[in-house]
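Moderator note: this is an archived Q&A kept for reference. The question asked for a predicted structure of one protein chain; the sequence and the answer are reproduced below.
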Amino acid sequence: MMKFNTFLIALLFFATACKQEKKAPEGPTQMQQVMAVHDEVMPKMGTLGKLVGELKSKVDTTETGRQYEAAMKDLQVANTAMMDWMMAFGNRFDSDEILDGKELSEEKQRWLDEEETKVNALKEQINSSIKKAEALLATE
């Protein structure tokens, strides 16, 4: 009986020692990085709207008025680009892929590479349009 218990303990030891544990990926996944960029710029959409409102009342036919109009249009284009990106992204990926880390097909992985590039360009577009508008309004 003692040999059997020793054998059983040894068997359990080797079984658990040889078992490969699935490690969680180190750092954020690419999907998480894409969503982090989205989450960073999404709160700025309110700022876009606020700035459009401030600029709209200053648009006129003068040179300065045309600068206000150009800045306002940049903000509006950035807003539309964000809405379009979110719609297209949601059409390409399901909630399990976005929120739960469901494995992506090869095609969807290529799409995610594209979306990462797009969302980073979108971030730059939003930030630069805000910066331009704020700088223009600060010169008053």
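Archived answer notes: Residues 4-19 have pLDDT under 50 and may be disordered.
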